[in-house]
Amino acid sequence: MKKNLLFLLIAGLIIGMISCDEETADLDPVVTDNVITDNISENTTWEEGKTYILGGRIAVLSGVTLSIEPGVIIKGEAGTGTSATALLIARGGKLMAEGTSSKPIIFTTIADEIEPGEVASPNLDPNLNGLWGGLIVLGNAPISADAESVQIEGIPASDQNGLYGGTDATDNSGSIKYISIRHGGANIGEGNEINGLTLGGVGSGTTIEYIEIVSNQDDGIEWFGGTVNVSNALVWNTGDDAIDTDQSWGGTLDNFIIINPGDECFELDGPEGTMEAKHTIKNGSVQALDADGLVDLDANSNVDMDGIYFFDLTVGQDFDQIPTDFTCTFTNFETTLPADTLAVTDFFKDGSDAFVTEVAAGANAVSAEVSEFSNWSWAAVSGALSNF
């Protein structure tokens, strides 16, 4: 009788422990890091609630789709030169990375202690850069270069997954929404860094919206040709240009915020080959702060710009010239100047003062729609948008 009673007590204790473990597992699931060291050669899903580590330069190969669920965090290992980490979507590959306003997808460095469910880093400041590479998306859309397809900057010539450009203007590289890319821009060689988001020959069939770039050592977003449209983009604390366009990008950037780039707020270059597409940049707010310049244009830049507000300017910054090789339009610019003794022509030169209106702080009629960046962006939750 005593042995049976002892057996029942032990059995009850074991059952209770199992039940307790099951309840704990339901409330607090165990999340393990997934280290990615090989190119992605079959359709793959990175699952919500998990953190993935890029162990090197990882390519999503042609014909393959990488799906990233809302709330996933991707961390790049430290590395420079050929060891710089990055996620590269090769021509013919697709990235389906669709976060939400409550569950953004975050690309950051291995040094970041951020966990799924958090937006702001618990241990890194938003001005640290060069700690990993960045996100590179390549497609088959037309580019204006010396050849129909060329090698993207930031990727060694030995890696054929770095080729971009083609003849399909409607090419589809996937869908990218509610993405924050942080602390990147690792250097792979002399003067050759990786941008926060690089778009090479990306076609109009690709969806890119709600994008935040924080503290990249090189440019925030750089387009190399292509036809993709981008909306609701925020670029904060870049080491080089915030917005950079090359090789006759033929799309539109609509509703954007720029905060404190290290070089130009915009560097908008013209075609390098015979293809001559025009891009449009509209509805933006630019807090220049420590930027070297406002808008850097070439004689052959081919762009229309409309509805942009510049503030927190510093003496020496300027809109440097109006392009002469193509008919470009610049309309509805507003600015708040830093001192009563300065004039619009001190900043907006070469006739550009004709389309720029000085306004008092807070009286601007043109700007970005700041509410589009609420909740999900680090800039918003940190208070960096309080003056917008």
Low-pLDDT segments: 1-32
| Number of helices, where a helix is a run of at least 4 consecutive DSSP H or I residues | 2
Mean pLDDT metric = 91
Strand content: 25-35%
CATH class: Mainly Beta
- The CATH topology is Pectate Lyase C-like
According to DSSP, the number of beta strands is 27
Radius of gyration: 24 Å
Architecture (CATH level 2) name: 3 Solenoid
Order of helices and strands: HEEEEEEEEEEEEEEEEEEEEEEEEEEEH
Proportion of residues in helical segments:
under 10%
End-to-end separation in angstroms reads 78 Å
Shape: globular
**Whole-number total of structural domains:** 1
For the largest beta-sheet, the strand count, sense and barrel status come to:
15 strands, parallel
The structural class is mainly beta
Write the layout of secondary structure elements.
Elements (H helix, E strand, L loop, with lengths): L1 H26 L6 E3 L7 E3 L4 E4 L2 E4 L4 E4 L4 E4 L9 E4 L4 E5 L6 E5 L25 E4 L11 E2 L11 E2 L9 E9 L4 E3 L2 E2 L3 E4 L6 E8 L6 E4 L5 E7 L6 E4 L5 E8 L4 E5 L10 E9 L5 E5 L5 E9 L17 E7 L20 E3 L19 H5 L6
Parallel strand pairs: 1-3, 2-5, 3-6, 4-7, 5-8, 6-9, 7-10, 8-13, 9-13, 10-16, 13-17, 16-18, 17-19, 18-20, 19-21, 20-22, 21-23, 22-24, 23-25, 25-26, 26-27
Antiparallel strand pairs: 11-12, 14-15
Would you mind describing this structure in some detail?
The structure is a single chain. With 388 residues, the chain is mostly beta strands. It has a single domain, classed as Pectate Lyase C-like, CATH 2.160.20. 8% of the residues lie in helices and 34% in strands. The protein starts with a helix and ends in a 6-residue tail after the last helix. The N terminus is likely disordered.
